[in-house]
Write a structure and sequence with these properties.
By secondary structure, this protein is an alpha+beta fold. It has 6 helices and 12 strands. Strands 1, 2, 4, 5, 6, 9 and 10 form a 7-stranded mixed beta sheet that branches. It starts with a helix and ends with a strand.
Amino acid sequence: MTEAVDRGMRTQLEQCQRALALGDRRIGWKVALNQKALQDRFGLERPAVGYLLASAEVGSAGIHALAGCTSPRMEAEVAIHLGRDLSAKPNAEEAAAAIAGLGAAIEIVDIDRAFDDIEAILSGNVFQRAVRFSARFEHKGLAGVRAILHRNGKKINSADASVAADDPAEVLVDLAASLAEHGEFLRKGDRIIAGSLFPPSEVSPGDRFAFDLGPLGSVEIEFSA
């Protein structure tokens, strides 16, 4: 781990603790920069990590306002729901056993700074702005799952989820190791968004996205000004 990564994570988690002290609630974690080329570029040993807060969860109406955004993007992701605590260094079998279910998720990120400074990216919680989850489904694997993304009623992307996404258990192994380096751990009830299955989509007011993961559910979001 480079000094820049360490400083960025310390700042990120300090900001999270301040939010919790003011009454917010952490609901889980996000995995980001999970492409090998980006990890090599920034000197990362594994994907980057960010936190998810209750205040960032999109409500039941499924509408998110873009006011204040610099350059918003939408990402379609697999959500991992934890049914038990995990140690700092779980093996793949332990991680798989901790999965209570999977689901669909949409994350909204705001690219509000240059994409060239890993310390600043981590300090800014890896561009995290909002998240919306489908229900949890008792389905622990991605085999046979087709991911389909629609924008304003038109299909814009589809893929075999088992190819487009990393194995959920391996995601947890890497995430647990990254968090342990900073004194954090994966806990029962955490929801983890495991990285975008498709290239991020630009969004504008009036856009509506629907993300379908077949047996893992579906989730929609609409953007307002």
